[in-house]
Amino acid sequence: MNKFFKGLVIAIFLSPLLISAQVEIIKGIPEDIETSKIIFLEHEKIEIGTDEENEAAKEYVLLRQKTHNEVIIEYNKQLEFAAKQYPYDYTISTPSEYLSLKDKGYKYVLDSELFKYKHLKNQPEEDALIVFEYYLRDLSSDKLYSIFELDEMKVYDPKLIVKKLNKALDKSQKSK
Question: Is residue 105 within 8 Å of 37, Cβ to Cβ?
């Protein structure tokens, strides 16, 4: 009972801190996008392996992982060309390194849960279409600007990703 009481007291004191650290999700483009520098993310290779016990599922997951590691080479090359269609300042980085760019004036990163690669760890449910939300993550706050969604069949198309971002930019500029 004494441990329970201590845990409850700690939870009561920590809850305001946890609540204030919540991420704010905003639909649309940030107002300062024209004057802010953004980061486009390259894909990174993932470690091949799975905990799947079913042999067919294991083979499928390993195939998805190997395919990912193969197609990202071309994706990363094409991202350089596609990003040139973005009208404002940008750079290209990786999910594991982009935070260091905050100190160099980069305010946003075009991010997605996709870059955590959890979807490649296990076999998806049968007939499930995995859809990823892309957002501009504000590196100076806890704000995410929801921009567009792509299903997993299109996430390796950098031209489409930049095109969708530019379309959202055009739409937001017309509504001003």
Answer: yes
- Residue-by-residue DSSP string for 24-65: EEEES--TTGGGSEEEEEPP----------SHHHHHHHHHHH
Alpha-carbon span 140 to 38, nearest angstrom? 12
CA distance 109 to 25: 14
SS3 content of the chain, % helix, strand, coil (to 5): 45, 20, 30
What backbone torsions phi and psi does residue 166 show, to the nearest 5 degrees? -65, -35
Give domain limits for the chain: 23-174
Predicted TM-score (pTM) of this structure: 0.84
pLDDT-based confidence at 134, cuts 50/70/90? Answer: very high
Q: Under a CB-based contact definition with an 8 Å cutoff, are residues 108 and 36 in contact?
A: yes
Residue 104 per-residue DSSP state: G
Does residue 36 contact residue 30 with C-beta atoms inside 8 Å? yes
